[in-house]
Design brief:
1 helix; five-stranded mixed sheet; 43% strand; 59 strands; mainly beta; 820 residues
């Protein structure tokens, strides 16, 4: 849907280039651009003969919808296709739709029987066209749906309460079994984050509704995982915010399903405010199967409605405002389905658009020698997958030898000319089908030498401050708007939403550095949220591909932020409340950050400065002198002594009280226990202990090599003041426990003794990953040990390696039992 949407946006903002010699297109930009005379109607594609029909059967599995735990081979048979005249048939198969990240493909495209492997949960759509030696049949389709065996964890994502509340009930009862399954879910809640110094606990963590005790202002994040029949869901988080001041309201609304053409009503009346204030409601459609989006009625009411004119998912955004604070924005999905009782199947809607390709982003014209694309931009009202049934280059300049070819599977409704070879006009005719109806469109590309007009870029819009007091201006600007051709840009600002009762307007102002109108102000007059929209246009009338939006809000009262504490940071996250490093020494890589609370939930900006250093000339720097820290990397304290960092914070309206963070660094002569460093060609990096590297949310590293090769990291442990013993060595493959994917230590084992003053060199070794074993395409590794004489000193190293979307197609799926 996203690809179609972006192409439709391109269609909606396209401009026919006239004086520059460009080709066709249309525009629904904020102001109507100049257009050329319309092209003649395209020649319709011949209708397929009615006595020639393609037919498809699913042979194995016999069902077209089933729970699939492992990849399953789907066999398709076209032997029931027929030609009433009895002619011999040839077959043209196509796999039109597969789930994201699926590697499914047909084993052949021209046999009577074909097959593919359903390797991901989701929908697979195959098409068959038969030919009797004279003409093609209409396309016939079959859909196979692989249902995931995984259950789904369901939580309310945000709960807001006032400080003084002691207990909050979490609710996972909306969790769901896999589709078509029956049985009972197992629940497992985990408290992942709580404020510094909090003693919060989670009771009844194995039930659908556990109880969370809260004691301090700040954010508490709990995670739910549900299990069914040995399959575990993706984790879902709920954030409990305990506020000191006015409690943020909570937006609440349910997803909706309707039939295409019926009115869809979304209802936010269940939204709440802790203090009981009257709420303002704001709805907007943020995504749809096509553009322009349908009209939304009642966008400022608790209930809003619209009529979907195409099947698919419509994404709406909702927030509520209590007079002082806005809620977090909530996503509500409306799913429109085709009416099975409808007597008419509507034809696809759209247009063929000719565009330049990187580095040019032109419309209807392109530089000679560069690539031209012809993409059908549109949708099918019933939500059926569209396919190209014919495309031809019907006109090109004399002497041109180019041909029209496929772009690739990522643009199934597109064709390209790889290199325009002669100056002049190229015209393409394309016919697309939804399996029932055909639509034929034509588009023109003009090959030029120089003066090709590229779209400008609006860039992102930012607010100087997201919150101001009523009567102060909200200032918005686009810092990165640009035009590739250097053309002057016109900035079209609009105030698309404002609070009830507001008379505010938006005023463009000259940017002090750029000298153009990329900045605008909204003078606030009542409390609430103000949303602006910007689109850029060049002096030849071509609009940016996208408009950008941003918002800010005005309030009558502001509470200043508070720096609660400053904490030491790890590679991922930070030390747990009450946890300290065993010893801080010179040349250790150390970072710290403030924990700041804003009672109003405003965006807070922080910085710090080093206000006091030891008299011996110590520094906190990433570029220490070699005499102090030879070969060191990272931010380090160069000498022993006391350092004081002063932290500042502001929400732009008010400043927090300053906070001093005092750090005492011991000398090497006073070093205790063991010291840890990683060793690389870039130098040594000393770490404080206990050491922990556990990527947040199982962050996946995606090496450039596919398959992923074996790797290792070199480490060193130095015994400072006594002999020390390694114990409790653990290695494991996190998500499967396979021997072939278990990491290892090289040079370190249980009982290894490091003599006083000596160094133990060891490696953490990670195995090769030759193939994708799981749907997630990632593998996790854990290595750890402790120091026997100092139990609080531990070493924990975890990593997740896997593929990304770009490498998935090159990284093969494992054969059955390949890694067992």
């Amino acid at each position: 849907m996203n690809q179609t949407r972006s192409l439709v946006a391109m269609l909606a903002l396209s401009l026919v280039v006239t004086a520059c010699g460009g080709g066709g297109g249309g525009s629904s930009s904020p102001s109507a651009p100049e257009t050329s005379a319309p092209d003649p109607a395209p020649k319709p594609a011949p209708e397929p003969p009615k006595d020639l029909k393609a037919a498809i059967s699913i042979l194995n599995p016999a069902q077209d919808r089933m729970i699939v735990k492992d990849p399953v081979v789907v066999k398709l048979d076209g032997s029931n296709s027929k030609d009433d005249a009895g002619s011999a048939l040839t077959y043209k198969w196509e796999l039109l739709e597969t789930p994201d990240q699926s590697l499914a493909k047909l084993n052949t495209s021209d046999a009577q029987q074909v097959e593919f492997t359903a390797d991901q949960a989701g929908k697979y759509v195959a098409s068959l066209i038969v030919n009797n030696g004279t003409a093609d049949s209409a396309s016939t389709r079959v859909t196979f749906t692989a249902i995931s065996p995984k259950p789904i964890a369901g939580v309310e994502p945000t709960i807001n309460v006032a400080l003084g509340t002691t207990s909050v009930e979490l609710d996972g009862s909306q969790s769901a079994l896999p589709e078509t399954a029956s049985g009972v879910l197992e629940y497992q809640w985990t408290l992942k984050t709580k404020p510094v110094d909090s003693l919060a606990t989670l009771a009844n963590a194995k039930t659908s509704k556990p109880n969370l005790t809260v004691d301090l202002a700040g954010d508490y994040i709990a995670e739910l995982v549900v299990t069914f029949d040995g399959e575990t869901s993706e984790a879902k988080e709920v954030k409990v915010n305990v506020a000191e001041g006015n409690v943020q309201p909570v937006a609440s609304a349910q997803d909706v399903e309707v039939l295409m053409g019926q009115k869809a009503t979304v209802d936010a009346s269940a939204s709440t405010d802790f203090e009981g204030a009257d709420l303002q409601y704001r709805w907007r459609i943020s995504d749809a199967p096509f553009e322009p989006y349908p009209a939304l009625n009642g966008a400022t009411n608790a209930q809003a409605d619209f009529v979907p004119t195409a099947a698919g998912e419509y994404e709406l955004k909702l927030f509520v405002f209590d007079g002082q604070r806005a809620s977090d924005e909530l996503t509500v999905t409306v799913t429109a389905k085709a009416d099975p009782a409808a007597s008419e199947n509507k034809a696809p809607v759209g247009e063929l658009i000719a565009t330049g390709y990187f580095p040019n982003r032109s419309v209807g014209e392109q530089e000679l020698g560069r690539r031209a694309e012809f993409n059908f931009v549109g949708y099918d009202p019933e939500g059926e997958t569209l396919q190209i049934v014919s495309a031809e280059l019907i006109a090109k300049p004399a002497g041109s030898t180019v041909e029209l070819v496929n772009i690739g599977s990522w643009k199934p409704l597109g064709k390209k000319i790889q290199k325009l070879d002669v100056v002049g006009t190229y015209r393409v005719r394309m016919t697309v089908s939804d399996g029932v109806n055909r639509v034929t469109q034509e588009a023109t590309m003009e090959a030029k030498i120089g003066n090709v007009n590229n779209r400008p870029s609006t860039g992102s819009v930012d607010a100087d401050s997201k919150a101001v007091l009523v009567g102060q201006p909200l200032i918005f600007e686009s810092a990165d708007a640009k035009d590739k051709d250097g053309d002057p840009i016109t900035f079209e600002w609009s105030l698309i939403d404002k609070p009830n009762g507001s008379n505010a307007t938006i005023t463009p102002v000259t940017h002090p550095d750029e000298g153009d109108l990329r900045r605008a102000e909204v003078l606030t007059d009542v409390p609430g949220v103000y949303r602006v929209r910007l689109i850029a246009k060049d002096d030849r009338g071509l609009y940016s591909h996208y408009a950008s939006e941003e918002f800010g809000y005005a309030k009558t009262v502001n509470h200043k932020p508070k720096i609660h504490s400053v904490v030491w940071a790890r590679n991922w996250g930070r030390l747990a409340p009450g946890e300290n490093y065993y010893q801080i020494l010179p040349c250790m890589s150390l970072l710290h950050r403030p924990i700041v609370i804003d009672p109003d939930g405003d965006e807070v900006f922080t910085h710090n400065e080093l206000v006091s250093v030891p008299s011996n000339g110590g520094q906190f720097t990433s570029r220490p002198d070699d005499a102090d820290c030879p070969n060191a990397r990272g931010q380090v304290f160069t000498k022993p002594g006391t350092y004081i960092f002063r932290y500042y914070a502001t929400d732009i309206i008010s400043d927090a009280d300053n906070y001093d963070f005092v750090v005492k660094v011991d000398s090497f002569d006073d070093a205790r226990g063991v010291r840890l460093k990683s060793v690389s060609s870039r130098g040594d990096l000393w770490y404080p202990l206990p050491y922990e590297n556990i990527p947040e949310n199982r962050y996946v590293f995606s090496p450039s090599l596919d398959p992923i090769e074996a790797s290792a990291i070199q480490w060193a442990l130095v015994a400072q003041d006594a002999d020390y013993t390694i114990e409790n060595v653990q290695v494991k493959h996190i998500n499967g426990g396979l021997d072939s994917l278990t990491p290892s230590f090289d040079g370190l084992q249980n009982g290894t003794v490091i003599k006083k003053g000596e160094t133990l060199n060891f490696k953490t070794q990670f195995p090769a990953i030759p193939c994708q074993r799981t749907d997630e395409g990632k593998e996790g590794f854990h290595l750890s040990f402790n120091i026997k004489e100092i139990p609080e000193i531990s070493f924990v190293y975890e990593n997740w390696y896997g593929s990304d979307n770009k490498s998935t197609s090159r990284w093969a799926r494992c054969e059955a039992g390949e890694l067992e």
